Amino acid sequence: MKFSILISSYNKGNYIEKCIKSCLAQSNKNLEIIVVDNYSSDETEKLLKKYSKNIIFKKKSKISKYPAVNQIDLLEEAFKISNGEIICLLDADDYFLDNKLEKLRNLFSENKNINVIFDIPKKLVNEKIVDYKFKKKLLKYIWPTIYPTSCISLRRNFFRDSIEKKFFRNYPLLEIDFRITVLSQMVDKKFLIMKNNNTIYRQVANSIMSEIKKFSFLWWEKRLQAHLYLEDIFKFNDLEYKRNIDYYSTKVIFNLFKNFNKEK
């Protein structure tokens, strides 16, 4: 069972070497490491040249003003190059613990019907490792708890099918972790959540969606996109998506914001 670790990168020169080293330190050596970078302006390329014999490195220009769209584009580009049976997603500022791939190999081998495995990370804040606390929801059961990108591992066929069915298209505020989580847990329903911590999630100021403040216009727009995305994928899979009070209240508040901004 071969693993392909797909790393999306942009100006993470302060962290990417630790990320690469964590992949090379895996006890399971049947892997490939693919880094696709959005032409970083920091030390990223210089650092990665040190590991040219151990990784596949490619640069690709940004295609959008939206960070989530660029992240997905980088991961899709990395996927085209890859050939592993199991795809592990990894942000350039995060890193894996040493035996993660071996644990994944055992779980995927023992559970042939499972397509996606999530793990609960630890969080690195100011060089101190603490428990990762998931965000509290306004309402439960609207969609599942979203696991960070670096905590998602999936079978090649699941990732390929998601691309071919255009589940990673449209709704530019939605990151790939949200998309895969709801696809696997609400539609496919063939997933596992690992009990042990196997990933370190680094809290940094310039994370992919750090600029979206809670209850801001963009926050409501993203929430509405999440509902519309769910509606789309349910319809695609001939499933009924029941619009709930959160759907309607989100739509009303978003439109109020939108109309208010037009009047300015």
Mean pLDDT: 93
Number of domains: 2
Topology, number of strands: 11
> At the fourth CATH level, what is the homologous superfamily of the largest domain?
Spore Coat Polysaccharide Biosynthesis Protein SpsA, Chain A
What general outline do the C-alpha atoms trace? globular
Biggest beta sheet attributes: 7 strands, mixed
Poorly predicted tracts of residues: none
Could you describe the 3D structure shown?
The structure is a single chain. This protein is α/β, with parallel strands linked by helices. The protein folds into two domains: 3-206, Spore Coat Polysaccharide Biosynthesis Protein SpsA, Chain A, CATH 3.90.550; 212-264, no CATH class. Helices cover 39% and strands 19% of the residues. Helix 6 runs parallel beside helix 7 (217-236) and helix 7 (217-236) crosses helix 8. It starts with a strand and ends with a helix.
What is the topological layout?
Layout: E1 3-9, H1 16-24, E2 31-37, H2 44-49, E3 56-59, H3 67-81, E4 86-91, E5 95-96, H4 100-110, E6 116-119, E7 122-125, E8 128-131, E9 152-155, H5 156-164, H6 176-188, E10 191-194, E11 199-202, H7 217-236, H8 245-263
Parallel strand pairs: 1-2, 1-4, 2-3, 6-10, 7-11
Antiparallel strand pairs: 4-9, 5-11, 6-9, 7-8
